[in-house]
Amino acid sequence: MAAVFTRIAGAKGKGVFAARAFAAGEKIVYVEGTPIPNDVALAMPQEKLDHMGSCDAHHCIVWREPECYINHSCEPNVYEKNRWIIAMRDIAEGEELAFDYAMNGVSGIDDWQMDCLCESASCRKKVCGEFFALPVDVQRKYVPFLDDWFVQMYKEQIARLRPIPILVNFK
Ligand SMILES: [Zn+2]
Q1: Which residues form a coiled coil (predicted)?
Q2: pLDDT tens sequence across 40-85
Q3: Domain around 33
Q4: 143 CA distance to ligand 1 middle (Å)
Q5: Do the beta carbons of residue 83 and residue 67 sit within 8 Å?
Q6: More confident residue, 115 or 171
Q7: How many CA atoms lie within 13 A of 99 on its CB side?
Q8: CATH number, domain containing residue 135
Q9: At the N or C end, where does the chain have fewer CB atoms within 10 A?
Q10: How many angstroms is it from 153 CA to the middle of ligand 1?
Q11: In a domain, 83, yes or no
Q12: pLDDT digits (tens, 9 = 90+) for 113-128
């Protein structure tokens, strides 16, 4: 049985829904596709750019169906790491899957904005593409869910988001 299915999700157009329940941390869909160098990817037509995701610091992938129809939410329930779409929390059968599009969003590539239709309680009204353009408390909440290449690329900025360790002086 397929893990997900697509159907119209109100004003957002098509969306992707869980075909069964998933536990937090469970892998849901693998993002297929061939990595394309960023400069080549950015020169592609808009309909491809709309479904493009970074897969490392230098490459993008044009996402295919069904995963290309996963909508944005300011209260996401999935994230992407090492090309897997993974449950951020327990997800019920029939629930819509949603990312925060700003996760792993690189400055200079993902510097776009759009109106948000997610209608969640913590909706930011505008979706931005860049991770570091997010409010700091949101950045901090997403640290455990960022992709490995993104954490590597922005090591220092992300280290500053982690809780400050309490230094104990043993004398
Ligand atoms: Zn929103």
Answers
A1: none
A2: 998 999 888 888 899 998 999 999 999 999 999 999 999 999 999 9
A3: 4-161
A4: 19
A5: no
A6: 115
A7: 25
A8: 2.170.270.10
A9: C
A10: 26
A11: yes
A12: 889 989 999 999 999 8
